[in-house]
Amino acid sequence: MRSCLILLVLLSIQGLTAADEVQRPNVLFIAIDDLNDYISPLDNHPGIQTPNFDRLAERSVNFTNAHCAAPACHPSRVSVMTGVHPATSGIYRNLFGAHGPRWRHESPVLLNAIVLSQHFRNHGYRAVGGGKIFHTLQWTAGDSQNDPHAWDDYRGDPLNPIAPDWPRAKRIPDAKTGLTKGRPLNAQLFGTAVIDAPEDSYGDHLVADWAIEQLQAEHTQPLFLAVGLFRPHIPWEVSQRWFDLYADADVQLPPHQTNDLDDAHDHGRTHWHQWVIENKQWPNFMRGYLASISYVDHQLGRILNALDESPMKDNTIVVLWSDHGFHIGEKENWEKFALWDQTTHVPLFIHAPGVSQDGQSSQQAVTLTDVYPTLCDLAQIPIPDQCDGTTLVPQLRDVSAKREQLSLTSFQFTNEPIASHAVSDTRYRYIRYGNSFEELYDLDSDPNEFNNLAGTAGHVQIQARLAAHIPTSAAPDRTVPKDSSYNRKKNQ
Questions:
Q1: Bridging pattern class, strands 428-432 and 438-442
Q2: Residues with catalytic annotation?
Q3: Dmax of the chain from CA atoms?
Q4: Closest CA to 293 of 322, 336, 319, 318
Q5: Strand, coil or helix: what is 298?
Q6: Are strands 26-32 and 316-322 parallel, antiparallel or unpaired?
Q7: 117 and which of 127, 254, 348, 474 could share a cystine (Cβ 3.0–4.6 Å)?
Q8: What is the number of other CB atoms lying within 10 angstroms of the CB of residue 481?
């Protein structure tokens, strides 16, 4: 009789444990590539059409002062997925030619780092991923820094997750369309065009289809679902209906100023802008970027619809982020690889059932390395010691809650001896470059960073206060390891 009672108690405990496991919150983790702050809940660029980002903002906390840890795909994504900042790891730039998690060999600090998805697996979650989570490109088949062992399942080949899925628009040689030689990149990757192929054949549509299937499936474990969408990354090629949202005559260029670089750091990429201006492509490229944003907004809407129709609707944390900001000609720059606000400012939305003050915004300075500890905190699992960031749960509970931390973005510029760093509080942005040049901007009165206030009267104390947050012993810049087992071989 006694043994039967003990058995019943043990079975009861096991039943409660299983029930508790099912009740733990799921995580829908959406990463978008090269998406800047033009979307309607942030900068609201004139004419932008992003209704699903508005919809997400209404059901989450919008962190309006969030910044990437590095303004490049590879370092930013590694920092999000490990919680380790580039100033700690030394991974500041894109490093190509990988076939697996070579970042473990690029930085000794990351050799045994636990990937976010793996950490959730270690605590009872089923972790699945699809699309671009770690760095890879549409045109570099097999060049991927993903860690296949960090997932229970991954859509397609985890080491070639997006290249097979993207059709290209028909390309006409530049000489035939009157464009000059010297377009940056090859194969018109820096360009915009209409894709004639059916839209349901595009990579992001296919990844969204897969995510919808995951949301509709039955799960016996809490789910960590990572969805990586590639647009609006170049090339800005989507179907005609997204271009039709933006008539040529209505496209507005971003705010810009002649001689803006006179008091600013030389990013070394003005030749991109010179080619665009010489060929009168600025409005055309802006239109392509906006069309690509609206395209990915549509994919977001499809995923949100599926979540709303799923049994996980009321028990799923939703986090959406972009790996860095993006320039469309501001400061004569295109893409990223700089430290101004336009390059580092990113969308970050977090919904936590029963926790977040949905529909409200926090202006506190945030770095994307804060995402890892935040998700751990929300799921009530331990935060690994490797994490450099801090939880955002206080701001989710009360968007007016203050943070002592400033945002920190780091990057290694070519031909400079050490890394450069930028910090932001709720008003000012300070940048110290690897060549010791400094910039300070008042984003309240000068949101486009036209006027460098560094060293000017009345700003010495502000500059010193922000400068105190610049790392004093940042890791040296890491390069491609020659003997890594994750180096991509020619036949891959």
A1: antiparallel
A2: 73, 135
A3: 92
A4: 322
A5: helix
A6: parallel
A7: 127
A8: 17
Q: What is the DSSP string of 220-285?
A: SS-EEEEEEE-TTSSSEEE-HHHHTTS-GGG--PPP--TTGGGGS---S-HHHHHHHHHTT-HHHH
Q: 208-237: string of b/e by CB count within 10 Å (b at 16+)?
A: bbbbbebbeeebebbbbbbbbbbbbbbbbb
HSE (side-chain half, CA atoms, 13 Å) at 416: 20
List b or e across 310-323, with b for residues whose CB sees 16 or more CB atoms inside 10 angstroms. Answer: bebeeebbbbbbbb
Average pLDDT over residues 155-160: 98
* Number of neighbours of residue 203 by Cβ within 10 angstroms: 22
Bridge partners, residue 229, by sequence: 32
- For 405-414, letters b (16+ CB in 10 Å) and e give ebbbbbbbbe
Tokens, residue 142? 């097999």
DSSP 371-440: HHHHHHHHHT-PPPTT--S---HHHHH-TT---SPPEEEEE--TT-SS-EEEEE-SSEEEEE-TTS-EEE
* CB distance 22 to 220 below 8 Å: yes
Contact 426, 438 (CB under 8 A): no
Residue type, 391: T
The tokens describing 322, both together, are 């972009």
Q: What is the pLDDT of residues 28-57, one digit of tens each?
A: 999 999 999 999 999 999 999 999 999 999
Helix (H, G, I), strand (E, B), or coil: what is residue 98? strand
Q: What percentage of the chain reaches a pLDDT higher than 70? A: 95
User: Of 77, 105, 90, nearest to 161 (Cα)?
Assistant: 77
Task: Please report the pLDDT score of residue 491 as a whole number.
Answer: 66
pLDDT tens across 205-214, in order? 999 999 999 9
**Average of pLDDT values for 312-326?**
98
Q: What is the pLDDT of residues 248-285, one digit of tens each?
A: 999 999 999 999 999 999 999 999 999 999 999 999 99
Tokens standing for residue 221: 């474990």
CA within 13 Å, CB half, 375: 34
Q: Reduce the DSSP state of residue 10 to 3 states and report it.
A: helix
SS3 94: coil
Which one-letter amino acid corresponds to residue 147? D
Strand 61-63 to 348-351 pairing: antiparallel
Contact yes or no for 337/243 (Cβ under 8 A): no
Mean pLDDT of the chain: 95
Which helix or strand (DSSP H or E) is residue 30 part of?
Answer: strand 26-32
- Answer whether residue 14 shows pLDDT above 90: no
